[in-house]
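Suppose you are handed a protein chain with no further information: no name, no annotation, nothing but its sequence. What can you learn? This example shows the usual starting point.
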Amino acid sequence: MSAAQDRRVVALIAGSHFVNHTYIVMLAPLVTVLAGRFDVSIAGIGLAIGIQNAVVLLLQLPFGYVSDAYSRTLVLAISLVVGTVGAALTALATSYAWLLAAQVVVGVGVAGHHPAHYPLLAAVSTDGNRGRAYSAHAFGGSVGLAAPYAIVAATAALGFSWRVAIASIAALGALYAAYCLLRFRSVDESITQPGLAERPDGRPTLRSIPGRLRRLLRTLTASKGILALTVLAFSTSAAAWAIRTYTPSLLAAGYSLPEGTANVLTSAMLGVGAGLILLGGGLTDRLGAAPILIGGYGLLAVVAALLATLALPIFAVGIVLVLSGSISLSRPARSTLADELSARADLGKNFALVTIGISLGGAVAPPFFGYLVDAAGLGISFAAVSALGVLSLGIGWWIVRDAARRRSATVPAADD
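A reasonable first move is to predict its three-dimensional structure. Written in structure tokens, the prediction is:
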């Protein structure tokens, strides 16, 4: 296994993360446009996004099982190809029912990316570079979240319709899928395929599948650390979706900024978050996962609470730039902990379980916080985001303490 090959795998997986995240949020910049085009409410377009997240949620463990038992690159290929087909179908949608069906297809594709990505990253990373590998992956995904907003703005400025914007995203995804899968053909099977040591019972047969599913459930429920990371992923994902969706409203309605300025600040926030992901990866390798995890969630709680007062001086509103970034800073540390708490044979399944928490947060947060904004106002809503930061801080503290206890229990006592 060569260092050049390892770097290539990390780069390819970061690119795949970028593509999948463009598919995840490609409807978000077009909510109002699509609601008018298909004669439905904004909540109806929110339902389409929710359906995509629900499909991702349902397919995490099945894809994790395939990744661990058969082939990581098979799941990667399914993810890139099916996601691209779903994006193309979205661009061609002529009815609301078609749009919903297209989002189901997108969800099937998006569902495979984490169960494929994390085992591949784990196979090419070591204790010395794991945080940076995960931060490169998270950076690609973070830029992918911002890209559809830029693509929609550019196509609208050029006078093209929403279909051209979505078609552009699909075309970009198709080109990358072909390139990525071609490049993976020359990657060693020791990376792309689960080794015999990782599946000592051999490849599953139809008769063995029920027993394996029972063992899978036992494995998942036996790992308190992974279950806690799943809850942590849910709370931080809910906070992130609330921030991405309602920060422009907070700045415009709560701080009286022009809508254009509010959107620019929100875009800048996503850019800062992408940079902080890289910083978080380097710091995780240097300092360990614990201080980065705790520091990131503590920062989220403080910044969200300050913004929730709706009383900051206008020059201080720039702290919004680190609001989403506080979560981004800690993401490589969370992934590193999931890696450390997983047996090699369970990487795909465990990361799939953590992704269930992420997807559930994405399904719940936009409608819940939308209701909260209408019913209680923006201040209360961002106070709730701060509360999620406090909850994440407590869960993260428990996880790192539990992981430290486990490490100390496995270290043999020194001779007197």
